[in-house]
Amino acid sequence: MTQQEIDNLKKYSYPLVKELFMPHYALLYRKSGLQTTGKKQHTAKILEVQFVEIVGFSKINQVFLSRT
Hints:
Blueprint: H1 3-12, E1 49-55, E2 59-67
């Protein structure tokens, strides 16, 4: 982690805040499945899609596919 990420982690309990924040949607796969329903509708404009393997503390271990 960079010094700024460490400082953010101490202050905000998360390293990627302020200019390091990267808004994203995380769609997760669970082998066993997960049934959920919700009443809120969200709209977003997707500019880039990546399929990645994430390990540890939100570390991208491998990028399988990246499309803009």
